[in-house]
Amino acid sequence: MATIEKHGKSYRYKIGYQDKQGNNKRYVKGGFSTKTEARHAAEEMEIQMRHGSSLDKQDVTINDYYKKWVEVYKKPNVGYSSMNRFNNIATVIDNYFPNTKITDISKMDYQSFMNDYQKTRSTVTCKKTNSIIRSCVQDAIDDQIIYSDFTRKVTINGAPSKKRAVKFLSIENFKKLIDYADKNKSYSAITYYMILTGAYTGLRFEEIGGLTWDNVDFEKKEIHVKNIYDYQNEKKIVPRTKTPSSVRTVPILPELSTILKQLKLEQSKWQVANKYRDPENAVFKSSECKIPSDTGCIKTLMLIQDEINIPRKQQIATHGLRHTLASYLLAQGVQIKYVSELLGHKNTAITMRAYEHLLKEQNIEQQGKTLNALNELSK
């Protein structure tokens, strides 16, 4: 039974209870303007307790719960880019709701937060952030910490998204880049090998870094994508991919097969000479006993592009190798469904959005062929 008492200029209630260990405890909540308001709040809390709510959880802050939620539900299952987003949202929550109990946040509080947040963010970013926070809030409801979803029916009106152009090299420059990297590759400059692998397969950088030698089947001429290299957080190969569709098998061209066999030979000789046994069996474990970061690869990639006289404004980063290969394949008439599967996209819609510039050109070409074919019928 709750007790109501005056505390300074406001009222508060106290509820006695036992924790899981059987210890007698007391839950106190104040700040109510009237005695009646405090009594109603106490009665609501007692109803929640009868439905299984734990008073031990009532003081948890939104940021503490969110961080624990990310640690338990997200970190084991997502890649580094997703983890960066989750961590950035933790900072946003901490800045807007510092030391705020999750039980104290109302729908109006959350809408005020979103109104402020969307002033400097795109609608897409706001929707992604809201979706993540909503998932967290719904789990807090399942944990019986709160009993209503304060994110429900939130209004989102962020700024329009600025569409980023997909950067890729011309076929001529792409061939020059591959040729230069092939001539200058060595085990002491292993990033050249990584760049060549990206150019020939379209793998994401973290997928390239995550390759182990048992993922490379020289006999069947296949690479099995199963892992990523988490270079921003764990600094090691982890058994997960960006999405379930990222788990895939990619063909190895004869040129890449020769390149990887040379790397394996150089790497094995160095490891034997230095009595080093790689516990990860990583394809791109360097002579420094580590896998290069994306930054290291980008530096090498820029150096190559400088050497083959590609202007800085036209240069690509590591992800641009993937865009260039995809653009080349689509321009050559390879079906979008196969390109989508090769890239590990969830569906063809993602591929179509990324490369709509090429697909529009192909549609114009197909329209021309259609008109020519129809004209032939009238002759």
What does this structure look like?
By secondary structure, the chain is mostly helical. It folds into three domains: 3-56; 62-142, Orthogonal Bundle (DNA polymerase, domain 1); 171-362, Intergrase catalytic core (hpI Integrase, Chain A), CATH 1.10.443.10. Helices cover 51% and strands 10% of the residues. The protein is built from 14 helices and eight strands. The strands form three sheets. It has a three-stranded antiparallel sheet, covered by helices on one side. It starts with a strand and ends with a helix.
Task: Please provide a brief summary of the model.
The chain is built from 14 helices and eight strands.
Question: Any chance you could write out the topology, listing elements then pairs?
Answer:
Layout: E1 3-7, E2 10-18, E3 24-32, H1 35-50, H2 62-74, H3 80-96, H4 107-117, H5 123-142, H6 171-184, H7 191-201, H8 205-209, E4 216-217, E5 222-225, E6 228-230, E7 236-238, E8 248-251, H9 254-273, H10 294-307, H11 318-331, H12 336-343, H13 348-354, H14 356-377
Antiparallel strand pairs: 1-2, 2-3, 4-5, 5-8, 6-7
